[in-house]
Amino acid sequence: KTEELCQWEHGDIVSFIEKLKIKELFEIYENQETCSEDVLHELRDRKKCLVLIVALTQSGKTGSMLALIKNYTLNFTIPIVNIFIITGLSSKEWVAQTKIRLPPDLAVRVYHRDNLKVKFINDIKDKKNVLIIIDEIQIAAEHTLTLHEVFKKANLDNKQKLFENDIKIVEYTATPDGTIYDAMDWKENSS
User: Fold this and answer.
1) Which of 4, 59, 93, 114 would you call most buried, defined as having the most Cβ atoms within 10 angstroms of its Cβ?
2) Helix (H, G, I), strand (E, B), or coil: what is residue 40?
3) Phi–psi pair at 53, nearest 5 degrees
């Protein structure tokens, strides 16, 4: 039943993307598909649970995130309720822009800094088989700031927990700052 439901949800995602394209509201481009395929290639390695994507500002990170969700749901059995898009930004505009490009069932799990400490933690608690996409990872990721606190509180900074619960994290940034070094600290568990 779960696999059947996940296939149906994948079909909804593909249909939603096609509707956006037909209405000329949004389109996934070849470079975004390629980026998503590269991420999938990395995540097929069962030793990896973290992938960092560095892309230029306005290079289409949202499109590559949507392509990733589409291709991830095609290649892995994952309920749509286990896919999250978060950011350390405190921006209702970011939330609105992100949600408008997502199917409604997925848009309800878009969180910005103001919702992370309570809503996100409650939503992700005790879940297995999870995909977390983080936009602008460099925002509020330092040790005393929101993303770091939330990951610590939700035990998402524990590699063993990530592997036990099959939790994958994909981080996007145009300015990696120290986050690239954090990802490198994960050694063979990240790329």
Assistant:
1) 59
2) helix
3) -110, 120
Helix/strand/coil for 183: helix
3-state secondary structure 78-146: CCHHHEEEEECCCCHHHHHHHHHCCCHHHHCCEECHHHHHHHHHHHHCCCCCEEEEEECCCCCCCCCCH
**CA distance linking residue 52 with residue 59, whole number of Å:** 15
pLDDT of residue 180: 46
Q: Mapping DSSP to helix (H, G, I), strand (E, B) and coil, where does residue 170 land? A: strand
> SS3 for 157?
coil
What does the alpha-carbon distance between residue 129 and residue 109 come to, in Å, rounded to a whole number? 15
Is the pLDDT reported for residue 165 higher than 60? yes
- The count of C-alpha atoms lying within 13 angstroms of the C-alpha of 19, restricted to the half-sphere facing its C-beta, is 10
| End-to-end Cα distance, the chain | 33
How far apart are the C-alpha atoms of 148 and 190, rounded to whole Å?
A: 17
State the DSSP H helix or E strand holding residue 18, giving kind and residue range, or none if neither.
Answer: helix 2-22
User: Structure tokens of 29?
Assistant: 């481009």
pLDDT at residue 181 greater than cutoff 60? no
Q: Which residue has the higher pLDDT, 24 or 48?
A: 48
